[in-house]
Amino acid sequence: MRRVSIFGATGSIGQNTIDLIGRDPGSYDVVALTGGRNIAGLAADAIRLRADLAVTAHDECLPDLRAALAGSGVEAAAGATALLEAADRPADWVMSAIVGAAGLAPGFRALRHGATLALANKESLVTAGPLLLAEAARHGATLLPVDSEHSAVFQALVGEDMAAVERIVITASGGGLRDMPLDQLPQATLAQAGAHPNWDMGQRITIDSASMFNKAMELIETREFFGVDPDRIEAVIHPQSIIHALVGFNDGALMAHLGPPDMRHAIGYALHWPDRRHLPVARLDLAQIARLEFHAPCDTRYPALRIARNVMETRGKAGVVFNAAKEIALDGFIAARIGFMDMAGVVDATLDVMSREFRLNEAMNTLEEVLVMDHLARVAAQAQIKQMERR
Ligand code: NAD
Ligand code: MG
After folding, report:
1. How far apart are CA 130 and CA 227, in angstroms?
2. Binding site membership of 121 for ligand 1 (Cβ less than 6 Å)
């Protein structure tokens, strides 16, 4: 029996992970599940999967969680410390699928057991890539990418020599607003930005897909995870989302990874790695798909890509500032405090302000340092939003 824990079990990635594990309950010993305010969902999954522990991120939800788990034998806990304690419980495989920088510390902590950390939480690599890789190496832990593009690259690299890699190309659907005329983008609504043409995902990443902040995060992730120079990493728009990534080699070959837009593929690959096992995802009918299209993304429409280039070159503290500012800007858009195109303005301005106070290209040595920079960047980004509101 493999011991597994799922951080962010109630979310989109968490539920897809539970779908896979729930199909084969005899193979898994579920240690901990964590969630947020969806207490009924968290408790139901914890009971069904016979988890040892269920944790809600919110202290005030503990009485409800206790009540929902009464008599089940599943322990209940709440709060940030309890999330870390859940990560301290030894497991062989841990899914890191909390959304945002909140997922960083529990993932870091889980590496201490030398476990396999399946990394859906892209913020971990963007904010603290070098530290995370070093921590994994120190404890003999394995990091596996779950973001579909990075899982695709990882799979295309099996058996290959990194020295022969010329370039990595990740694809982008273009998001929910890809056909909206440029001059209408500033007025785009939450409902428009929150509808994805191909993937069914959490609200935050869906909006990030429309702005391409998601692709910006993924370019940075690629740089950090695979250690490839920024000028060898590209993003291309591919509206069908069938090819997830391609790796170009020095003989001119491009190895592409194709699959249906279903996160259970990348999750299942990480779950069974290094083996491949049967997964309940649709099989592609190429004749029916008929056409795969590609075009270059436009920097005017997607300023996030330009910002990502800057962050990939700067590294150091730039990633954590970028991510924090992006999260605050996204909160601002969701709360209708700023417009859709203002999000990039907030991130640009925050990077600018922070670069006057800190040498952003300086490496960080501890997780605490990352969390302090994260906090300072959030304060700076909030100030930018307030300024925009006054205008
Ligand atoms: P989601 O919003 O559906 O779920 C997020 C989960 O995190 C929930 O369980 C929620 O309770 C928990 N959570 C939220 N805030 C928290 C906090 N402050 N502390 C502790 N827990 C908290 O998100 P998702 O779409 O499943 O995405 C999860 C992560 O995976 C994100 O980093 C996302 O970028 C990444 N990812 C998602 C997809 C996808 O298809 N959904 C694909 C690639 C990468
Ligand atoms: Mg992705």
Report:
1. 10
2. yes
- Any residues with CB less than 8 A from the CB of 101 and at least 6 apart, and which? 123, 127, 320, 323, 324, 327, 371, 374
3-state helix, strand, coil in the chain (%, to 5): 50, 15, 30
pTM: 0.97
Angle between helices 318-334 and 122-138 (to 10 degrees): 150
Helix (H, G, I), strand (E, B) or coil at 135: helix
Which residue is closest in CA terms to ligand 1's atom 2? Answer: 202
Q: Write out the DSSP string of 57-85.
A: S-GGGHHHHHHHHTTSS-EEEESHHHHHH
For the stretch 38-91, pLDDT in tens is 999 999 999 999 999 999 999 999 999 999 999 999 999 999 999 999 999 999
Q: Are 344 and 386 in contact (CB under 8 A)?
A: no
Q: Answer yes or no: is the C-beta of 263 below 6 A from any ligand 1 atom.
A: yes
Q: Does ligand 1 have an atom closer than 6 angstroms to the CB of 332?
A: no
Per-residue pLDDT reduced to its tens digit, 236-273 = 999 999 999 999 999 999 999 999 999 999 999 999 99
Any bridge partners for residue 128, and if so which? none
85, 88, 15: which is closest to 57 by C-alpha?
85
